[in-house]
Specification:
By secondary structure, this protein is an alpha/beta fold. The chain is built from 7 helices and 8 strands; from the N terminus they run H-E-E-E-H-E-H-E-H-E-E-H-E-H-H. Helix 2 runs parallel beside helix 7 (300-308). The longest helix has 23 residues, at 13-35. The two termini are 34 Å apart.
């Protein structure tokens, strides 16, 4: 078991028990839709898959009260056994794609690498699993091939013939603009809670996101550049984002990763080239044989190597 140091419990035992029961019911409800997804490309050799439906050992799904609506919002948490009492630990905030869960990243190879590297890994829901982490999505493109079972379908890749997963997270607010605002606020709330509960190394706080979460990660990197030591955008949904010479994201190390079987490859490449013309600290990687779903876990060794090579010295 992890030997990390906690402060006062953030959720009561009763709350955790309720969350466990609720999650079990939710996962069973979702399972039928998830298993109906057609298979996609296989994961690369050495990459361990994992479920977005059931948390692995040592992964917790916690909740907190979102003051604006009074709802309990979930987030997932994994703490490496290498995180010791009183020592500063690096932190990764991971943002799911459209209709994903708090476990989109907090599973499989990502957990293995977080354990090896001594990281705390957190997956906020972003108010709910359709909201854009501060980015208002535009019109949805036509359907494209879906990913493998357990992969996160993007806003662009949820096919019309497949039943969409249910909403996870907040439902009290329906206004799109307010939901977008709350999605960003949820991420920052969870970041604040984790920083209060653990001894976090402020020089090593990283952000990554997939698809809709990639667009959200770009937005949060732009809005809060002082926080992040590095940012990884995996098959990011563009949503019309065009950095300019005064964009704050240009100050940050950014990794853009996309599979060459993904319909978003062209937009990812274009975004990367634009960043480079603005002299951004950007690395661009195309992964042979990976699609929109398998890029999540398939790119993680590259993502963790990228994070390990960067610390935030901008505030020193």
């Amino acid at each position: 078991m992890p030997t990390f140091s906690r402060g006062q419990p953030l959720t009561s035992k009763r709350t955790r028990a309720f969350v466990a029961l609720g999650c079990a019911a939710h996962f069973c409800f979702w399972l039928g839709a998830a298993l109906a997804q057609p298979p996609g490309t296989p994961l690369p050799e050495g990459i361990r898959g994992g479920s977005e439906l059931v948390p692995e050992p040592h992964v917790e799904i916690l909740t907190y009260r979102f003051e604006e609506t009074g709802e309990e919002l979930p987030y997932s948490l994994f703490v490496s056994s290498k995180v010791k009492r009183g020592d500063k630990a690096p932190l990764i905030i991971a943002l799911r794609g459209y209709t994903g869960t708090t476990l989109t990243f907090v599973r499989g190879t990502t957990i293995d690498l977080a354990e090896q590297g001594g990281y705390i890994l957190v997956g906020p829901i972003g108010y709910n699993n359709r909201a854009g982490f501060g980015v208002q999505a535009g019109p949805r493109p036509g359907p494209a091939p879906a990913g493998p079972p357990g992969a996160t379908p993007s806003d662009a890749q949820t096919s019309a013939g497949r039943r969409a997963p249910p909403i996870v997270g907040g439902t009290a607010e329906a206004d799109p603009a307010r939901v977008t605002e709350y999605s960003e606020k949820d991420v920052m709330n969870v970041l604040e809670r984790v920083r209060k509960e653990f001894v976090i190394d402020d020089r090593r706080i990283y952000l990554m996101g997939h698809s809709q979460g990639g667009a959200g990660a770009r937005h949060l990197a732009e809005k809060y550049p002082e926080i992040w030591a590095g940012v990884a955008l995996l098959a990011p949904a563009p949503f019309g984002a065009e950095p300019s010479a005064d964009s704050k994201i240009l100050k940050l190390p950014v990794l853009i990763a996309v599979g060459d079987q993904d319909s978003l490859m062209a937009s990812a490449r274009t975004f990367s080239e634009l960043m480079k013309t603005l002299h951004a600290k950007v690395e661009y990687r195309e992964f042979a044989g990976l699609d929109h779903g398998t890029i999540i876990l398939g790119s993680q060794p590259t993502v963790f190597a990228f994070f390990a090579s960067h610390v935030n010295d901008r505030n020193q």
